[in-house]
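Team,

Forwarding the record for the chain on the shared tracking sheet. I've put the sequence and predicted structure together so nobody has to dig through attachments.
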Amino acid sequence: MIDVKSLAPWIIASWAPSITSRKEKDGKTHFYLYFSNSGSGTGVLTSTSPVGPWKSPLKKSLVDTSTPKLGNCSHPFDPGVVIDDKGTGWLTIGAKDVRVAKLGKDMISIDRPISVIKAPYHFEANELNFINGTYVYTYNTDWTPHKDCSLKENTRCTMAYMTSKTPLITDSWELKHDYFRNPGDHGMNYSNNHTHLHKYKGKWYLFYHSMTLQSSFNTDGGFRNVCVDEINVDENTPYIYETKPTMQGVNQIKSVNPYMLQQAETVAATQDIVFSPQGRAGNMIAKATKESGMIKVRGVEFDKKVNKFIALVSGKGVLKVKADSPQGDTLAEVMVDSSVEKQVTIPTKFVKGRHDLFFILDGKELAFDEWKFK
């Protein structure tokens, strides 16, 4: 969790982050996170680790309505950032009226000029990728039917993309097509669309949001959750094929190693659990919001015999570890009664092969931080 308000107390609110990184002269990888300062501008945070600590290098937004050369771009928010093959950073911003700018070498300044992208039916959700020498700009179209361009007719609030080799030349941007319809067109709830394309281990993934989970919280308040599905991208063209949202999401890429220290916040799903920052940057502890809460960890591979379970815990309650279901075999049961965090080691039942683990936290005073088998 990044407490943006404490880092940048001048903001109104923060949302819609876009992040990039590069290795710099000090030998460290530096991360640059751009975020919407409500609808009025775009701020930036920096760190040398994705889990922090983060800092705000500026005392104001990087871009806001007072920035020169924005023209009709009255809402310079929803940033999309990318670093190209020459190490140059680029930023897109705007709602309905879109702007693209080259970032300064420090990544926290604008290297003029600021140019226009003529994105048909533009609404928001700007993002940038750099694929095979081409700048790929993705955005969310508005709620009006599309009738006079290459976007599908009568589709609304879809994700579309444009490409360019020279991003500061407005007329060089070419509209391609929709690649992701609104989740509401596929039986989910309708809401604003926002995606990010990311390549990992040779595959492309589409991260997006829906409102699928809000019903499990007995609300219809428009609360969004993050989803991910594979997407087919032809890098030679480049060409983004249309994909559909699924309830299943992607397959697990790698099994979880139970013999190395794992964080309680590394989860596949939770029920009645809240996570709070604790100690070092990026670390969180888990607590139940009711008398009992549950954490699911998917695909844990036991290929060596174990006889001990180790957990870092505090407070008062019982931590139970179950295999394959909340009613499955009990592998370990840790009794906790300590006002300070401590490591507890207990005997455990051996289970062989690949299993889902369920960590059940009985007691609202119980705090769960780390675990591993030995």
